[in-house]
């Protein structure tokens, strides 16, 4: 496969109300002993982000947000600018995955290229291995169990950078 036709999909949880657990103090601000802090208060409100990009970074599939609320208050006055679905635990189950596959991923691929495409992803139970591309354009490659953090491209800094910038 041409690198522009190799895609990786991964999910990550985003604790959208959590405050940072650490901070940086400049030398000008004094010694660490003078700086006061508080104990970490962890907000547990979360959504799951489904991210997908090709190896060259030239095609970024629209991210999917999976939340728990059917009609979130934050979207009352203006619609969500990216796809949003709800699931009881804000997880990617087979129904959410199928919706992502049919409504987001395949249309994005068809618009991007007519060439064969490889999609690399982990073997999470929510990823239905029986779901395939009816045209045969996309081949799904499942990574072996317990190795995704080593071999999955999105886990090599892309997801952590996104969370840091958020």
Automatic annotation (TrEMBL):
<dbReference type="Pfam" id="PF03184">
    <property type="entry name" value="DDE_1"/>
</dbReference>
<feature type="domain" description="DDE-1">
    <location>
        <begin position="44"/>
        <end position="166"/>
    </location>
</feature>
<dbReference type="InterPro" id="IPR036397">
    <property type="entry name" value="RNaseH_sf"/>
</dbReference>
<protein>
    <recommendedName>
        <fullName>DDE-1 domain-containing protein</fullName>
    </recommendedName>
</protein>
<dbReference type="InterPro" id="IPR004875">
    <property type="entry name" value="DDE_SF_endonuclease_dom"/>
</dbReference>
<dbReference type="InterPro" id="IPR050863">
    <property type="entry name" value="CenT-Element_Derived"/>
</dbReference>
<dbReference type="GO" id="GO:0003676">
    <property type="term" value="F:nucleic acid binding"/>
</dbReference>
């Amino acid at each position: 496969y041409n690198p522009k036709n190799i895609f990786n999909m991964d999910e990550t949880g985003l604790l959208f109300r959590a405050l940072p657990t650490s901070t940086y103090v400049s030398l000008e601000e004094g010694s660490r002993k003078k700086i006061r802090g508080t104990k970490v208060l962890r907000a547990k409100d979360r959504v799951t982000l489904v991210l997908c990009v090709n190896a060259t970074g030239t095609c970024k599939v629209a991210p999917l947000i999976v939340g728990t609320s059917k009609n979130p208050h934050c979207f009352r006055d203006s619609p969500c600018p990216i796809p949003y679905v709800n699931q009881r635990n804000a997880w990617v189950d087979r129904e959410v995955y199928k919706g992502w596959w049919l409504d987001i991923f395949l249309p994005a691929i068809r618009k991007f290229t007519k060439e064969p495409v490889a999609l690399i992803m982990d073997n999470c139970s929510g990823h239905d291995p029986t779901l395939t591309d009816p045209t045969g354009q996309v081949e799904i490659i499942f990574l072996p169990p317990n190795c995704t953090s080593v071999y999955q491209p999105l886990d090599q800094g892309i997801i952590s950078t996104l969370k840091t910038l958020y």
